[in-house]
């Protein structure tokens, strides 16, 4: 039996936080292997990247999610008791609930709400002179997704909700004040979402039948029980929070258009905009890893995976793997021309099957919202990009250009 190449340092948590997204890839290069072992948060952890690793990682007979997410991440990013930590039938049932919300018509409806929000905001942008894209888009997405999900949102509530949702997203890999802001954001948001669920159940609130709020509030598990208030709140936030997080991909799309201006024209073509959006998702950093635990011991490619061992799939490293993506550090949307899709190669939002595994339930929404944003940025408005800090610090997880992407002199084309 071969030994998985093992990092020499007693614990690599600080190195991971210091290096950020390239951490696993760098270790893999160092040991000449797409699978390495190290200790993270004082726990032995197998780290893997690449296509074969992704295929293995999404084999639900071999891996489970129970207990995989560190408590810090549950207290901020995901919450406790949600779909991310479920396995087997319980996962299947809960995941089907999410996927029922993602019909093509529903995805289009959210896209249209986002475009409408953006158009309504343009007069204010024209007057403002200077606009920072990230907070503005996050706020528009909060309004759009709440309207889509059947969630009432008073005008005076918008900033508070957006700030709390952003704090949860920003806290994912933080040990500093960002972690505490994330915890507070989660606490307040779960309270808010719990009240909404109770409002529907008690009849003081109504929402159309196929909206996320209604579906989640009325969902019954495999034994016919309503979800406990706190868990229903976590699941409602599992729709609202990541939709607001798409603001980060919108900023990266704006950055890519700035760095590769030839694409401003090209994205008017339907195939080209698809290629552009896929390359933004591949190229720019978002979630560094996904985590699971070995369900029961097995051997793979001569390596032993002991029961209970934590395993990380390097999402960023797989999206930048030179065997899958020639010249991975080049931004080249053309690489997706004629691409037929591969559930284990492009994994910014996880891999495998949507229903059978833990692949992101919101991939279609993400792609639609990104396309809508690219259309506004190239077709509906013109703007200037003044000198600013556009560097993307890969040690900062989740990453963004330092400035949040500032634009000036916004003017409408129509
Ligand atoms: C900003 C863009 C997004 C990114 C980068 C992203 C990324 C991810 C990742 C990496 C996972 C975990 C995959 C795994 O554990 O194997 C995930 C799961 C999930 N995402 Fe997303 N996501 C995004 C947008 C969305 C949206 C818009 C929604 C819903 C409206 C959504 C809902 C979910 C849910 C419910 C899960 C849990 C799935 C499960 O455990 O079965 N995400 N996402």
Explained architecture:
- The chain has 414 residues and is an alpha+beta fold.
- The protein has one domain (13-412): Orthogonal Bundle (Cytochrome p450), CATH 1.10.630.10.
- Helices cover 49% and strands 11% of the residues.
- It has helices at residues 13-19, 23-31, 51-57, 71-78, 88-99, 104-128, 133-149, 158-170, 177-202, 212-218, 229-259, 262-266, 270-283, 315-319, 363-380; strands at residues 35-40, 43-48, 63-64, 130-132, 289-294, 298-300, 303-305, 310-314, 381-384, 406-412.
- Strands 1-2-8-5-3 form a 5-stranded mixed β-sheet, sandwiched between helices. Strands 4-10-9 form a 3-stranded antiparallel β-sheet.
- Helix 6 (104-128) packs antiparallel against helix 7 and helix 9 (177-202) crosses helix 10 (212-218).
- The model has no long low-confidence stretch (mean pLDDT 96).
- Protoporphyrin IX containing FE is lined by residues 83-84, 95, 98, 238-239, 242-243, 245-246, 249, 286-287, 290, 315, 348-350, 358-362, 365-366.
- InterPro entries: Cyt_P450, Cyt_P450_E_grp-I, Cyt_P450_sf, Cytochrome_P450_3A.
Q: Can you lay out the helices and strands and say which pair or pack?
A:
Elements: H1 13-19, H2 23-31, E1 35-40, E2 43-48, H3 51-57, E3 63-64, H4 71-78, H5 88-99, H6 104-128, E4 130-132, H7 133-149, H8 158-170, H9 177-202, H10 212-218, H11 229-259, H12 262-266, H13 270-283, E5 289-294, E6 298-300, E7 303-305, E8 310-314, H14 315-319, H15 363-380, E9 381-384, E10 406-412
Parallel strand pairs: 2-8
Antiparallel strand pairs: 1-2, 3-5, 4-10, 5-8, 6-7, 9-10
Helix pairs in contact: 4-9, 6-7, 6-15, 7-8, 7-11, 8-9, 8-11, 9-10, 9-11, 10-11, 11-13, 11-15, 13-15
Bound molecules: protoporphyrin IX containing FE (HEM).
